[in-house]
Write a structure and sequence with these properties.
Rossmann fold; Arc Repressor Mutant, subunit A; alpha/beta; 223 residues; 2 domains; four-stranded antiparallel sheet
């Protein structure tokens, strides 16, 4: 089930969009402030982001621009009343994947959303490298300074996810959602145990751990 972040400060439009998306069985988080959206995107991942242009805090087009600048690849749609060609160029140049002007028909919105969600994800490299670590997603081999490190499947999945999202902070709940998927037994304790085991296997005694604990928030991978 796709998760969508909607950032829209017009509550009437937001209510319409949320109801429309929930009727299509999408999970929807709704925010009204662009700066809050940027903070949320540091900690949580979505399958699609829908941004109004004129937002309090940080405008939607700038949210998209900053999100792309720090490596965000999630499809983004600009939803706005600004109809000029120059506005559309600016939104698309900022990294938006689609641009829908208000007023709009709910059927058009959901059709465009389906199209964006069908797009194949950008090709991901199978070899991830950070410090003296190398992770090969094809062979499932991890080496540290040329020496193979034996990881359990969940440790490997957690390390791969963190290496693919360097310098981004993820809460334990976000890691459970993305790494543990539907495992019903997954808890914050399971995340902490796997992080600690990973640290023992991949850290160097003369360096700070590459998996940082951001107290009260979550974990971050520092390459």
């Amino acid at each position: 089930m796709a998760k969508i972040l909607l950032v829209e400060d017009d509550y009437e439009i937001a209510s319409l969009v949320v109801d429309c998306l929930k009727a299509q069985n999408y999970l929807v988080d709704h925010l009204v402030n662009g700066s809050e959206a940027l903070d949320r995107l540091k900690f949580f991942e979505y399958d699609l982001i829908i941004l109004d242009w004129k937002l309090p805090g940080t405008e939607g087009v700038e949210v998209c621009n900053q999100f792309r600048a720090r490596g965000g690849k999630t499809p983004c749609m600009i939803l706005t009343g600004m109809r000029e060609l120059e506005n559309k160029e600016q939104g698309l140049d900022a990294g938006a994947d689609d641009y829908l002007t208000k007023p709009f028909q709910p059927r058009e919105l959901t059709a465009r959303i389906r199209a964006l969600l069908r797009r194949p994800a950008m090709a991901e490299t199978h070899m991830l490298v950070a410090r003296d670590l190398e992770l090969d997603t094809i062979t499932h081999i991890v080496t540290k300074a040329g020496q193979e490190v034996q990881l359990l499947p969940k440790e490997f999945a957690l390390l791969e996810f963190l290496m693919r999202h360097p310098r981004q902070v993820f809460s334990a709940e976000a890691l459970i959602d993305r790494v543990w998927s539907s495992d019903s037994e997954a808890t914050g304790t399971a995340v902490r145990i796997n992080v600690n085991r990973l640290r023992r296997k991949i850290d160097s005694s003369d360096q700070e751990s590459c998996i940082r604990t951001i107290h009260g928030v979550g974990y971050r991978f520092d390459p």
